[in-house]
Amino acid sequence: MADLIDRTALGIGEANREVFENPAYADGWNSAIKIIKAAPSVDAVPVVQCKDCIWFGDKHGCPLAESGYFLVGRMLPLENDYCSYGERRGER
Hints:
Layout: H1 23-38, H2 63-66
């Protein structure tokens, strides 16, 4: 699985060649920064775990119930489960 990072949270930028005795250090650093900036990004969204979902514990309202989840041997989803239908409490 790929690591997700926040590029701005790294808090780094390009180095000024003039402040180094050996400008090659700045060149190497700046090359690494260019690689980070060019790396592909993803549209990541936070997962809503069942324990935080408005439907948790409501087997008649939980969209997971209609997806066939209950047919695989469990009666209700566990707290750390999640699905694509999750809605965080208080967001509605």
